[in-house]
Design brief:
Radius of gyration: 21 Å
Shape: globular
Number of strands: 0
Strand content: under 5%
Structural class: mainly alpha
């Protein structure tokens, strides 16, 4: 664990140095091919850095933050697109925006700056649920396989939301700005489109829209017309998301891709596109009740996750490694506590 922490510190020092180069050198170049060429080594370097870490949680977080989010933000930066353009006047602000899963909230005059107490309560409940899940894993050999898989679905959501929320705390503390939430209670979804577009991992959604969705929709509009232009754009977003998940799976397992997770996202892209198409032709008054359609959407996400999202991770023992890392952390904390 000590070596892994050393590697993690080295990775993030190198990442910060790389982002300093982006801020002081590349930001001075004109947008387009010259800036893209100047940042190409950084793209490659950010793809390499997670390979120097092997601990599941550390490599997963670093791969997501650097290889996916930071690279996509820097790609937008090449063409003077937000969130890194125009470059902030503060270097640390630039580094935080580039390397952390944060999106500053647009302030309005009527916006209440205080954090709603409900969010704090929900956060505490999710922390307790995550701890309970880890405790229940001690008895998973006595539980039905489907119960364990359902626990993994809940675990994935809670741990991802808590990790992203905790990662945003330093930027909020340093710069004092409000940050858009990374999740919007996905269990309250009313449809697949609502789940993926407005509730699940909104940081990724906000990055994939300008990098994939808008360019493909612009091309599709010329070919298909404005009515159906969003359909190929939606599917393209999910294809890219699937490929990026495949890359993260490689960092986690270090085995050749099986493309199952890519097909998971392609399937959902086709399903969301079909849903959008149906909404365009079916009057709202004859559609399913949002409660029913939301339950069906969550069921579809859970079943396809068990079929295509989790198998590669389970075959390579990622679940056992995750539980093992948690147990090591708990033992370490117990050793540090005086009681």
């Amino acid at each position: 664990m000590e070596n892994e922490l050393h590697n993690l510190i080295k990775v993030w020092i190198l990442a910060i140095i790389s982002l300093c180069y982006c801020y002081y050198i590349s930001s001075k170049l004109p947008k387009g091919i010259f800036k893209l060429f100047s940042l190409t080594p950084i793209f490659i370097f950010f793809l390499y850095l997670p390979l120097t870490i092997s601990t599941f949680h550390l490599v997963g977080i670093s791969a997501f933050f650097l290889s996916w989010l930071a690279n996509f933000k820097l790609l937008l930066f090449c063409f003077d697109q937000p969130p890194l353009s125009p470059p902030p006047s503060n270097l640390f602000h630039f580094i935080s925006l580039a390397s952390l899963p944060i999106k500053p909230k647009q302030k309005t005059p009527s916006q209440n700056k205080s954090k709603p107490p409900q969010r704090s309560i929900l956060f505490a409940i999710k922390v307790l649920l995550l701890a309970l899940l880890y405790h229940c894993y001690s008895y998973k050999q006595n539980l039905h396989k489907n119960v364990v898989l359902a626990m993994y679905c809940v675990h994935t959501y809670i741990e991802l939301e808590l990790t992203l929320a905790l990662a945003a705390i330093p930027a909020r503390a340093m710069f004092g700005f409000e940050i858009e939430p990374q999740f919007n209670e996905p269990y309250l979804t009313t449809s697949l489109q609502d789940f993926w577009g407005r509730r699940w991992n909104l940081m990724v959604t906000s990055i994939l829209r300008p990098t994939v969705y808008y360019p493909i929709r612009l091309i599709s509009t010329r070919l298909l017309g404005s009515r159906w232009a969003s359909l190929p754009a939606i599917i393209s977003v999910f294809v890219v998301s699937g490929l990026m998940h495949e890359l993260i799976y490689y960092y986690l397992t270090r085995v050749a891709p099986t493309w199952e997770v890519t097909w998971f996202f392609i399937l959902h892209g086709v399903a969301v596109a079909a849903e959008v198409m149906v909404k365009k032709v079916v009057p709202e008054k004859v559609r399913l009740n949002p409660v029913v359609s939301g339950a069906l959407a969550l069921g579809f996400v859970a079943m396809t996750a068990v079929w295509l999202f989790f198998p590669q991770l389970l075959r390579n023992g990622v679940d056992e490694k995750t539980i093992g890392e948690y147990c090591k952390l708990m033992n370490l904390l117990k050793g540090l506590l005086p009681f």
